[in-house]
Amino acid sequence: MQLASHTFFRQTKAMQPNLRIEIAHTDKLNPDLLATILALCSRAYEEDLESLFATFADTTHVLGFLGEALASHAMWVTRWLQPGDAPLLRTAYVEMVATEPHQQGRGFATAVLRRLADAISEYDLGALCPAKPRLYAKLGWVFWRGPLFIRSGERLTPTPEERIMILRLPQTPSLDLDQPLSAEWREGELW
User: What pTM did the predictor assign?
Assistant: First the structure.
């Protein structure tokens, strides 16, 4: 699903003529921009996300700007998902897809997610826990149909209340979406 850069930017410009998309690792962002990202996500999700944000480590952000104002955001963290007994897959796990409430419905999240998909092309897999499945489905994400588990050492804890979507990338091996899928335990939201 990797798009050639010139094709992507031409499509983005046609859909969102003023949206400028940048990618940056958290350690390259100044504290004011990090506070702006947190505020945007908290407004979009209608809850205070500061404590959850503190649990994310080694994050990379995709930022959509209108002029100098942040309008849309997504980020990923590296996680290790394991389908069945197969080898662990280095996974770009997507978090905090958010657009300013008054800017929603203009295709900004779509543009940010397309750019994110291009940026994670060297990972084995993309994954996320969707708030709005239709947004992701139209971009090629599909639901994992098999049971989900969290790994902690040798222990697997079932998480039947969760639903996960994956994005196949150029490095993704052949997958049986009906087999079990597990992720390592982490602080905060497990999935």
Answer: 0.89
